[in-house]
Amino acid sequence: xxxxxxxxxxxxxxxELIKAHLQQRGYELEDFGTxxxxxxxxxxxxxxxxxxxxAGAYDRGILVCxxxxxxxxxxxxxxxxxxxxxxxxFTAKATRQHNDANIIALGGRVTGPGLAxxxxxxxxxxxxxxxxxxxxxxxxxxxxxKYSRGNDRE
Length: 154
Ligand code: RB5
What we know:
The chain has 154 residues and is α/β, with parallel strands linked by helices.
């Protein structure tokens, strides 16, 4: 599985921890930054990781900012991205089974390192259940198409 990683300064330390954890487990990783704790803009990293995942260059993406909120909002603006902000193990599993989330967002200032790594492991190890959940994900895609640039808004 190929995974794209990104964070702003608020998520930098947790992103580095996740990177080391996943490297140990043999995942194929690409780090889209940031690479220091200097203040930077989370939408830039959401865009880089989101575009790479939406293009199919990576199977999944992991984004971290201070709360996980800003970076998840930004990633969800990209067509084809279903980015879930997760802070517990139940949601980590459900957002794969039910929502087919292709990016997970975490809050580096919110979720402790032990829980964050557990969340990531569960999320990476859980498959989409399809069935009725596919119909719902397809409806999300229809909303996305309705509001894509160039489409009429009713
Ligand atoms: C940066 O200070 C902070 O606003 C950012 O990391 C994130 O929490 C935004 O949602």
